[in-house]
Design goal:
This is DPH-type MB domain-containing protein. It comes from Allomeiothermus silvanus (strain ATCC 700542 / DSM 9946 / NBRC 106475 / NCIMB 13440 / VI-R2). It holds the Pfam family Zn_ribbon_LysW. The protein is mostly beta strands. It has two domains: about 5-55, Single Sheet (Rubrerythrin, domain 2), CATH 2.20.28.160; about 60-100, no CATH class. The protein is about 10% helix and about 35% strand. The strands form four sheets. The chain has a three-stranded antiparallel β-sheet with strand order 3-4-5, with no helix packed on it. The chain has a two-stranded antiparallel ribbon with strand order 1-2. It has a two-stranded antiparallel sheet with strand order 6-7. Strand 1 and strand 2 (about 15-20) form a beta hairpin. The longest helix is centred in the N-terminal third of the chain and has 5 residues, at about 20-25.
Length: about 110
């Protein structure tokens, strides 16, 4: 079965849907990103354009250093400790990469 890659405009993750499901998309359809949970509306089919209906474009994503679970954090939390909901590990994310890569996707490691 063929799959089509659909990148989330919020988290940048590549998500995949079956070609059959992709062919049924229509303008105005709404879907949720399986990676970050953002709600996206199909604005255009050719090319595929998605509008963020619900989800924060100013969120950043960091992987938990212990279990590698992806965690959404906001700029308001800079310098604050974050607790992973999956494993309970508390850490302070490294924000230096965000400040260095102003034009790059908003992603923390």
């Amino acid at each position: 079965m063929d799959e089509v890659e659909v990148s989330c405009p919020v988290c940048g993750e590549a998500n995949y849907m079956s070609a059959e499901e992709y062919d049924t998309l229509a303008e105005g359809d709404v879907m949720d990103c399986p990676s970050c949970g953002a709600t996206l509306e199909v604005v255009s089919i050719e090319p595929l354009e998605l509008l963020v209906v619900e989800g924060d474009l100013h969120e950043f994503y960091v992987d938990c250093p212990r279990c590698e679970t992806q965690i959404a954090i906001s700029a308001d939390e800079e310098g604050e400790p974050v607790t992973c909901e999956n494993c309970g590990f508390t850490f302070v994310p490294d924000w230096s990469e965000v400040h260095e890569d102003e034009g790059e996707p908003e992603y923390l490691n």
